[in-house]
C-alpha cells in the first residue's frame, strides 16, 4: 500500500509537482502441509511440517516527480517514479 500527498506549483501554463511516498506491506504465511503432500515430497508422514514464520512487515519511502505544460486545450505531462528505499536496509 502506498500513501502520497502531492505538492504542486503552477506558473501560467507550466506546472511541477513532487509527491513523497510512504509504502507499507504485510504478508502473513503459516501453512501446515498435509500428510499426502509430505509423502509426495519424500518426507516422513505424521510430523507437522509448517511453511512460513507468520507475519512479515516492510516499511519504505521514496518520491515521485512530475511536470506538465498546457497548450490550448491540450495538456502534455510526464511523471518520474523514483526508487522506493527500504527503511530496514538503510538502518542496517
Assign the structural class, choosing from mainly alpha, mainly beta, alpha/beta, alpha+beta, or little secondary structure.
mainly beta
Q: What's the number of structural domains?
A: 1
- Radius of gyration over alpha carbons? 24 Å
Number of strands: 5
* β-sheet strand percentage: over 45%
End-to-end distance:
23 Å
Q: What's the tally of helices? A: 2
Order of helices and strands: EEEHEEH
Relative helix content: 10-25%
Quick overview of this protein structure:
With about 90 residues, the protein is mainly beta. It has helices at about 35-40, 85-90, and strands spanning about 1-5, 5-10, 15-30, 50-70, 75-85.
What does it look like?
By secondary structure, the protein is mainly beta. The protein has one domain (2-91). It is built from 2 helices and 5 strands. It has helices spanning 35-40, 87-91; strands at 2-4, 7-11, 14-32, 50-71, 74-86. Strands 1, 2, 3, 4 and 5 form a 5-stranded antiparallel sheet that branches. A hairpin with a 2-residue loop joins strand 2 (7-11) and strand 3 (14-32). The two termini are 23 Å apart. The mean pLDDT is 83.
What key phrases describe this protein's structure?
92 residues; mainly beta; 5 strands; elongated
Architecture blueprint of SSEs:
Blueprint: E1 2-4, E2 7-11, E3 14-32, H1 35-40, E4 50-71, E5 74-86, H2 87-91
Antiparallel strand pairs: 1-3, 2-3, 3-4, 4-5
Amino acid at each position: 500500500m502506498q500513501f502520497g500527498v502531492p505538492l504542486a506549483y503552477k506558473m501560467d501554463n507550466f506546472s511541477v509537482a513532487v509527491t513523497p511516498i510512504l509504502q507499507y506491506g504485510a504478508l502473513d504465511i503459516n501453512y501446515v502441509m498435509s500428510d499426502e503432500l509430505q509423502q509426495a515430497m519424500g518426507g516422513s508422514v505424521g510430523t507437522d511440517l509448517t511453511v512460513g514464520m507468520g507475519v512479515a512487515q516492510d516499511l519504505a519511502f521514496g518520491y515521485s516527480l512530475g511536470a506538465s505544460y498546457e497548450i490550448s486545450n491540450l495538456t502534455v505531462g510526464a511523471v518520474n517514479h523514483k526508487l522506493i528505499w527500504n527503511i530496514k536496509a538503510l538502518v542496517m
